[in-house]
Specification:
alpha/beta; five-stranded mixed beta sheet; four-stranded mixed beta sheet; 11 strands; flat
Length: 879
């Protein structure tokens, strides 16, 4: 079973430069817009699941420009009346060779009057060293002039141009004269010296020879081809990827070795192995099929001469496997299977019989799907023959490991046959469970190979009752054999399966355990994806604050340093846009604007390097419309509070117009409204009324909940208990309240509420700051809560206190507060509460809830305090 395509011990975390295809369920019930890839052919499926087995080279189109062609094209410019094209070409060439800050002359001093064709423009000193200018030379702060000429009488032209440039009001320190003519060095030096001395301006003459050197020798052929409109032949070139470079090197070395018979001294077995390895290398390079088949056939022919049955089967198996998964050739698979069948009764090793089982599984599936006739497939006869041999091997007590392998193979066959039959599938799973238990005695039993297959099969057998106990055994074995990271990976895969089935509670349990085991430097990307999937699970349970807390954690993991932003830019973009959706759904304007602005900055910085970025930009533009809908549905009194709100027209153009419409700023609205959308006022009103009445409007709050006042409210409802945080409208209290609600939701997410008896239907919490407060606030665990709710009063410097050094103290405080809330809102006996807490501990509820850094710290590190507060978004008051 080891070669089944689902095998592999790593979750599919996606390429580094591809947006994660997740669909976080915000309170807007709006999934991420992505494109799913559906595969139909075996080769597509294999390429999708095991891309590392395929070529990583790229076909590039190369344009080769010969020096003679460039020279002729420059010489004949005037014949084609391409003087202005030559000027454009010269300026672009000079920008990458001489000086990048060149300004084309388009006014009264331009080109045809014989003065300057280009000049330098001033650049602030602070920008010179900070910006990448695309050439090795930084911008100059001196005044330089440039003249371009295609005249054959180059001497007269340069004399005329120098005279006119010297007469200009703007004084230049250097002049560069570029000609399409060949100019002898001696003549060039004489003219440069005479004119430089006469006008006290340093003159440099650059001729056709200089152009050819800078284009051909410095490999700038594309610049000449594009700007001079030169037609050249295109050639396809193969750019070897890093994996293919190694494969090609190994293949070349191996072919050279195979060509010398003296290397083997009649050792046919070794020669056959080398042909087999060469065939796999050629397959990985995606060489032509005839070449790959030829190497496999050589390997098989030599294997037949060895008279080693297991080796003959191995070579045939790899060839058949390749026919199916690389060339979609089920007929070729069946042909080779038929050729190998006579060896089956003679096989002594169960793993060789496994190879028959793998091929037979493909034959059975293809037959069911109509790709093979019953006559060709012969599934029943072949299954019986294979089972008979495996039964014989399973009875050999002198080879216990081989016997156990045979028993395992038989149960895998039973499982595949029993899919769709609950009783048969459960019996096979229970039998496989016993095989794994027994495997602890045998160090050479390939337990991890079978575990990887069973993990992947969980997608379509995970619902059987016997699978869950089997999975727990698999995690134990994985941790014992390969360590905590490997355990985290299979927990992650199982959590993903539950997530895809929308079983959010079970998904959260497994993903929570997975992310705690994967938070290590070497598994950073997998850890980020596990955190994002935890957020997806919380959102599916309706726990918006917990989902938001997880997304903030993922954002922090991406933004730890400049290097991590570069590495995890796709994940960072996904996290930021999701934060924007979540805060928009919560009606939190300040944070929404901050995240939305940052994600656009990231798009502009990294967009060209990320696949499917257009999907994200479309979504951000849609977000603009949704925000406009939110504004239009606010109560009129609350819209007035936003009268001085400002945000970027570049990112939220429609929202800006919607705010003007809601505020009845008609003149400004009609002035800014795009004319191509309509000019009639009734037509404009209709557009905004339609936007206001979108179905998504029912998901938004109609009030600002104090966002522009001294206090404001954050709310969450868990099992009919309403948790309300009234918080002072400052950065510290607000972020603590967000943290608190997120942790309450996260800690209680998997609680068995039917085992608890609640005596309240609401919990009110006041978060405030005062000089008399404490960092962290004092908790009186023994006393009942105040009739008006809990009061958490921090010192006024709480925002500074919430730093990395105090994260453990913050965690202890939150743990105590969670326990106090649980004790206060129930009437259950202490023993029942302790039993429930043990379940929570086993599920990792508290460790999952408290594993994130304080929200305040993450936000300060990512966007800063000021941008997070809505007050920073208001225009300065008029004097």
């Amino acid at each position: 079973m080891k070669d089944k395509p689902p095998a592999g011990n790593k979750p599919d975390t996606g390429p580094a430069d591809k947006l994660p295809k997740k669909g976080l369920i915000s309170n807007l019930n709006r999934p991420f817009k992505g494109t799913e890839t559906f595969v139909h052919k075996p080769s597509d499926m294999m390429r999708s699941s095991r891309p590392e087995l395929f070529s990583d080279s790229e076909i590039k189109i190369a344009q080769k420009l010969k020096p003679s062609i460039l020279e002729y094209h420059l010489e004949t410019l005037t014949n084609r009346k391409e003087e202005y094209i030559f000027e454009d070409f010269c300026r672009n060439l000079l920008q990458v060779t001489i000086c990048p800050n060149l300004l084309p002359q388009t006014g009264p001093t331009a080109g045809g009057d014989g003065k300057t064709d280009s000049v330098t423009y001033p650049v602030a000193p602070v920008l010179i060293g900070q910006i990448y200018w695309g050439c090795p030379n930084p911008p100059t702060s001196d005044n330089w002039a440039f003249a371009f000429s295609a005249q054959k009488t180059w001497r007269a032209k340069v004399i005329s141009d120098m005279k006119k440039i010297a007469a200009l009001d703007r004084k230049f320190t250097k002049v560069f004269f570029v000609s399409n003519q060949f100019i002898p060095d001696k003549q060039r030096q004489i003219v440069e010296s005479e004119l430089s001395k006469k006008y006290s301006i340093e003159l440099h003459i650059l001729d056709r020879n200089w152009i050819i050197i800078k284009i051909i020798d410095d490999h700038r052929e594309e610049l000449a081809i594009n700007y001079l409109n030169i037609s050249v032949d295109e050639k396809k070139q193969l750019a070897l990827g890093p994996k293919d470079h190694i494969r090609q090197s190994n293949l070349d070395e191996l072919i050279e070795k195979i060509r010398n018979p003296g290397n083997y001294y009649s050792n046919i077995y070794s020669l056959s192995l080398d042909y087999l390895y060469a065939a796999k290398l050629a397959r990985g390079l995606e060489r032509p099929r005839y070449e790959i088949d030829g190497l496999f056939i050589h390997a098989r022919q030599l294997a037949a001469q060895t008279i080693i049955d297991e080796h003959i089967v191995r070579c045939g198996y790899d060839h058949a496997w390749t026919n199916f998964w690389w060339f979609d050739d089920a007929g070729g698979l069946v042909k080779i299977y038929s050729e190998l069948e006579s060896y089956l009764p003679k096989l002594k090793n169960a793993d060789s019989c496994e190879q028959f089982a793998n091929l037979l599984s493909l034959i059975r599936t293809t037959n069911i799907m109509g790709g093979l006739s019953d006559e060709d497939a012969k599934v029943s006869d072949r299954t019986k023959a294979l089972k008979d041999r495996l039964h014989e091997l399973s009875k050999d007590r002198n080879r216990p490991t081989n016997s156990l392998l045979a028993q395992t193979a038989l149960q895998f066959m039973a499982l595949q046959e029993g899919i769709g039959d609950e009783y048969q599938a459960n019996d096979a799973l229970k039998a496989l469970h016993k095989c794994l238990i027994k495997s602890g005695k045998y160090i050479f039993y390939p337990a991890m190979d079978f575990i990887n297959i069973l993990i992947k099969m969980g997608e379509y057998i995970g619902h059987y009752s016997a699978y869950e106990p089997l999975f727990k055994k698999m995690t134990e074995i994985t941790k014992f054999r390969e360590g905590e990271i490997a355990e985290g990976r299979i927990l992650y895969q199982r959590g993903q399966q539950y997530l895809q089935d929308k079983q959010y509670t079970k998904a959260l349990e497994y993903l929570g355990h997975a992310r705690l085991r994967l938070i290590k430097e070497e598994t950073s990307r997998e850890s980020i994806h596990a955190v994002l999937d935890c957020a997806e699970s919380y959102a599916g349970l309706g726990l918006k604050w917990a989902a938001r807390m997880e997304i903030l954690l993922a954002t922090h993991m991406c933004f730890r340093s400049r290097q991590t932003i570069e590495i995890y830019k796709a994940e960072a973009l996904y996290a930021l846009k999701t934060l924007a959706w979540l805060d928009l759904g919560l009606g939190r304007i300040g944070p929404f604007l901050a995240w939305h602005e940052l994600v656009w900055i990231m798009v502009e910085r990294y967009g060209k390097t990320i696949d499917n970025i257009d999907v994200l930009t479309d979504e951000l533009e849609e977000m603009d419309k949704v925000f406009g809908c939110f504004i239009l549905n606010l109560d009129e009194r609350h819209v007035i509070e936003l009268a001085e709100l400002k945000f970027s027209d570049n990112y939220l153009f429609i929202s800006n117009l919607a705010l003007k419409y809601a505020l009845k700023q008609n003149e400004s609205l009609y002035k800014d409204f795009p004319k191509e959308w309509g000019t009639e006022r009734q037509q404009i009103i209709k557009i905004f009324e339609e936007l206001k009445n979108q179905p998504i409007a029912e998901h938004f709050p109609k009030f600002l909940n104090g966002k522009t006042r001294a206090y404001w409210k954050l709310e969450s409802t868990l099992f009919n208990i309403k948790f309300t945080c009234l918080t002072r409208n400052y950065f510290g209290p607000i972020t603590f309240a967000e943290n608190l609600l997120g942790i309450i939701e996260a800690a209680f997410a998997l609680a068995q509420w039917e085992n608890l008896a609640f005596i309240v239907d609401k919990v009110d919490i006041l978060v405030d700051i005062d000089k008399a407060g404490q960092n962290p606030p004092a908790l009186e665990l023994e006393k009942p809560p105040h009739p008006d709710g809990y009061k958490i009063v921090w010192k006024t410097d709480m925002a500074e206190w919430l730093g990395p050094a105090n994260a453990p103290k913050m965690g202890d405080f939150l743990m105590q507060f969670l326990l106090k809330i649980l004790i206060d809102i129930t009437i259950d006996p202490l023993g029942d509460l302790e039993a429930e807490l043990k379940v929570w501990s086993k599920q990792g509820a508290f460790s999952r809830a408290l594993s994130a850094l304080p929200v305040a710290l993450i936000i300060k590190d990512t966007i800063g305090e000021e941008k997070y507060e809505l007050s920073s978004r208001f225009k300065a008051s008029a004097p």
